[in-house]
Amino acid sequence: MNHDPLTMSQNGKLIIFSAPSGAGKTTIVHHLLGKIPALEFSISATTRERRGDEVHEKDYYFISKEEFLHRIAKKQFVEFEEVYTGTFYGTLRTEIERIWAKGKTVIFDIDVEGGLHLKRKYGAQALAIFVQPPSLEVLIERLTGRGTDSEEKLKERFAKAEKELEYAPQFDIILKNYDLETACREAEELVSAFIGPPAP
């Protein structure tokens, strides 16, 4: 019988934060990383170009499309998807193993479909939280205000966000990010309760 080494780990826990782009999940995840020492960020692999001052092996594992497809063939990802045409994102199996080996809880800032895939895979070991923006209009304002995307890219993001909002009920918890400070505090409470007290 072929056991998956990851599902054999009894203590490993995962915290999954998913949301449409612009909903504030990255800000909440950074807040939690600063507050809860037991958490460690899962670095995703991607084929997209670096933005601004992003750092390889800190923000993402930036790899070529060829290498990404090669790793898919070798079943090195626990989840992956083509988020936008020609642009892949995924979670390497070794990344989860690396964090669990340190006795920490893995925290994800991940695409909605990727988040649901992880939740299905890990079941009770994972807490899946959907960050909900006040409205689609607010989301569109935030994405437009970033000034980092072309008009065409923005349209693609808007269409994707609209679709992703429909997935919210499939998550364990819907965290409303109407006020960032409140959302961060609620996220802290939810995550702390799921992880449990730190080991003595």
TrEMBL record:
HAMAP family: Guanylate_kinase. GO terms for cellular component: cytosol. Keywords: ATP-binding, Cytoplasm, Kinase, Nucleotide-binding, Transferase. SUPFAM superfamilies: P-loop containing nucleoside triphosphate hydrolases (SSF52540). Essential for recycling GMP and indirectly, cGMP. The gene is gmk. It comes from Mucilaginibacter oryzae. Its EC number is 2.7.4.8. Its main location: cytoplasm. This is Guanylate kinase. Residues 12-192 form the Guanylate kinase-like domain. ATP binds at A19, P20, S21, G22, A23, G24, K25, T26. One of its GO terms (molecular function) is GMP kinase activity. It is found in: Cytoplasm. Belongs to the guanylate kinase family. It catalyses: GMP + ATP = GDP + ADP. It is an enzyme of class 2 (transferase).
